[in-house]
Every structure is written in structure tokens, then in C-alpha cells.
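Summarise this fold before class:
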Amino acid sequence: MVRGTKVVSLGGSVISSGIFPNAGFLTNFVALASSLKEQLVVVTGGGAVAKSYIHVLRPVAKNEYYLDKVGIEATRLNAYSLMLIAKAHGLNAEVANNIDELEDLLKACKMAILPGQLPGITTDADAVLACEALGCNVLVNVSRVGYVYDKPPGSKNAKRLSKISHGKLVELASKYDTREAKSGFIFDLLACRLAQRSNIELRFVNSEIRNIKQALNGRRFEGTLVKD
């Protein structure tokens, strides 16, 4: 267990704008990380880069396993982009190859960054597993959406949910998570069940730095709280 460590699942949609890194957001996020007393584990999603490549390759590949592999490489690209921006601003950050490396990395750096790990498993599930491995009971999920909805956000009459139980989150994910690369619910079904089994509190927020800070510090935030 690594005491005083916070874990963030950073969606690829906020890491990059189109196919380019969102340097402004990442710089502000690094400043936030620097201001925290605690160390930080950041799990990076694939975002637009993953989505663009997968969209082009799906008709050709017809193989979800290799499409997932493409997505994982995009998460690594985003992980190294965050690391480089962190180092440029004086924050000691390193990219971990796997979850088991996180504890050792945190002995030497302020921020450990974890890209995607296995085909078929999203970076949200990786983030929950990182929480379990490190003994963290809270995960902050940052995405462009910022809330859990009762149905896909683009659907008619979709409603934001401010607070729900793990059971309700699992119910929603069971209905809407398709498990195809770069599609589905805000938090995949496996991640939901892993969070439920270890009673990990989930805080879903948008990419506003102040809002992320509020969620990390356990203060009132705009978004969805998942807690039993």
C-alpha cells in the first residue's frame, strides 16, 4: 500500500485536441499535480488518436484484439506526452510499463503515469486495478462528458446523475457498454464491477482544473459521485 497517493483516470478526449496533445490543459494539470501534497498516479486514455486509427482500420482489420492493441499504443503516446510536459515544468514524472511498477516509481517521483495494459480492458479498468494495488479507495475520472447519464448523453431526454450506487453504475454499464474498441459507456462494465468489489469511490468530473482539484481534495464538485 502506498499511503497518500491519489489516482486519476485521465480520458484521452481531454489529453488531446484532435490528433494533437492539448498542451494547455496538460500544462495546467501538471501545475495542479505539483500543488498537491500527495503523489499522483495518472492513467491515460487513447482519445482522438485511438478513435481515428480504429475508425480507419476496423473495416480492414475485422479483429477487435488488434484494434485494442492500436488503442493501447495511443494511450502510450498520451502517457509520454504528459510525462514530457511534466518534466518541462519541473515535475518529476515517469511512465510505468505495468501496474506492478507503480509502487517503486512512486518512491522516486511525484507522478507515475500508466498507459493501457491489455486488449479488451479499458484504461478505466486499469485505473481501478491501480487503486486496488496501491490501496487507494477513491478514483477521480476526468472526461469531456463529466457526468454519468441514465442513457447515452446524445440520447433524447438523457439525464445527468449526481449520485448513484455502485449497483446502479453496474446496471447502466451492463446495458450500454458494447465492449467494442472506442465505443460504449463512460465507464466500462469490468471497471464498474472492480470498483464495486473493492468499494472504491468514483468521482466523475469534466476537464475544468478547479473541478478536478475539488474532486481530488474531497470537496464539492460538479459531476457524478458513485458511492454506496
Notes: Residues 5-226 form a domain with the Carbamate kinase fold (CATH 3.40.1160.10). The chain has nine helices and twelve strands.
